Amino acid sequence: MEKLKTELLIIGAGPAGLGAAIYAARSALDFLVVDKFLAGGQIVTTEFIENYPGFRGNISGYDLMQNIIEHCKDFNINLRENTVINKIQPPKQNINKIGKSNLENIFKCFGDELEITANSIIIATGASPKRLFVEGENEFIGKGISFCATCDGALYNDKEVMVIGGGNTAIQEALFLVKFAKTVYIVHRRNQLRAVKSLQLKAFSNPKIKFIWDSVVEKFDGSTHVEEVTLKNIKTNKITVKKIDGVFEYIGIKPNSELVKDIVDLDEQGFILTNKNLRTSMAGIFAAGDVRDTVLRQVITAVADGAVAATSADKYLNNLL
Amino acid sequence: MEKLKTELLIIGAGPAGLGAAIYAARSALDFLVVDKFLAGGQIVTTEFIENYPGFRGNISGYDLMQNIIEHCKDFNINLRENTVINKIQPPKQNINKIGKSNLENIFKCFGDELEITANSIIIATGASPKRLFVEGENEFIGKGISFCATCDGALYNDKEVMVIGGGNTAIQEALFLVKFAKTVYIVHRRNQLRAVKSLQLKAFSNPKIKFIWDSVVEKFDGSTHVEEVTLKNIKTNKITVKKIDGVFEYIGIKPNSELVKDIVDLDEQGFILTNKNLRTSMAGIFAAGDVRDTVLRQVITAVADGAVAATSADKYLNNLL
User: How many CA atoms lie within 13 A of A90 on its CB side?
Assistant: First the structure.
């Protein structure tokens, strides 16, 4: 069993975790970043990022994150990839604000053959879009199948796109996509929307939006990019094949907050509740990026969250927060 | 009198305003950015930025902002420099949330020989550090005189630096600087600190921190970089000249919120109060970056604020917020 000790453990090496790492390095903290897979986060599968200010043109998610990873390496950050943390055991009595040093608070973090004791933790484990799990989906994610209209909508100027879902986000994003696309097909498995009335009214009155009711996706086809969607009407069992330029899946998003669900407060959907300093309900644990209750899930906002969380962790470790 | 009309007026073209512009452009909003001076913001005078993730090495504030300005130009944003807005007249009755379209809300913004009618506004006017206004200060700002230890502290490894001020921020930043600097001199005009007790105790017990009481700065000298500070003891009138590698002025920061002080709620120090969506107390007016009640004032957080504010303004204009 390997044992490590650190002032700050950053869990997750996507945009939020790496943003936190750069700020922790600049604060000369003793810290460690772990990721269950490789550094970069889910954004590495995104074709083009047009909206990380300062990086012009069509930089890929992979290349943007390589820049940020190299930036971290300049600071000699201690990054362990392929390292899963399974359990966090908080201090028996959390002594924040009762006159002793926060450095006496010890979180024990357990992985496979690994135990890390940390004085503070930043949770930057991100969120995962819920998936359809149909044929062709894996193949075309980042190649025409997207989970983010704010990210990719502008790439479909005058094109035909499809939105899968009927909730608030699906309709909101469909209403965003009509600014660019010629037609937005909304595919929903029921014959009415779950979205709030005001959104429904807007969607129904928009001539660019067309509804495909009672239908589910059977599979995606294409060559280098998605080109066709096979749909099944679940009432009639009729199969239809539609030509399409892009697909946006909005069947929900799931925060990766399993690890801390019993020790910090979550909202109804499982996102970690944070205050202005990105502190969670437990002193010493901070959250940054998509895993928290944020209003916008973008690379730029996740990186900035990381900066705030690391700065707050530094203050906490110095008994200033 | 020139008259313009826009859905969204962004006031200020620093990191927050330009971050907002990129997101407004990607949302296909009809918008206009104005700056009283040139685009880029106060950060253009900073020597090196090491902590805008993705930009490695010693990029200057000027070069970073040129990248972001060029990024904006790729989206053909409508930017008017040297354009002062003197007054904002809100709609007589703000009709947000009473069943009518937010596009019927009209703010009238008055400049010199200019009137802009806007359906929504993002205030991104920044904040200005309070200044000493002594000889040599102008000359060496960005050349050894800094207003931000988080930004520039790491540049003074094993060097001698001076902090001017005795409040919370001054002491907090001095405690940050000891991680790098050999000695941190704190120069304060009184013989006791204004900072909270816990900070005082930390500072007094740190062997790297030395206090110069009852003293004010008379002038700064140097060649290409600040090298000497002339101090006067205000009780004895004794003049001392100290060799120094860097100076951090922390005599306060002043939000540039004058324009909206009568129409939105401010905190005690004049920073604009915002909610999670960066909405101010008035529907249709948003705030981003240093001018608002944020916990961290950095380029990355200001740019991210811009992204959030623009996304919120887009939702507001579509009656979704």
Answer: 17
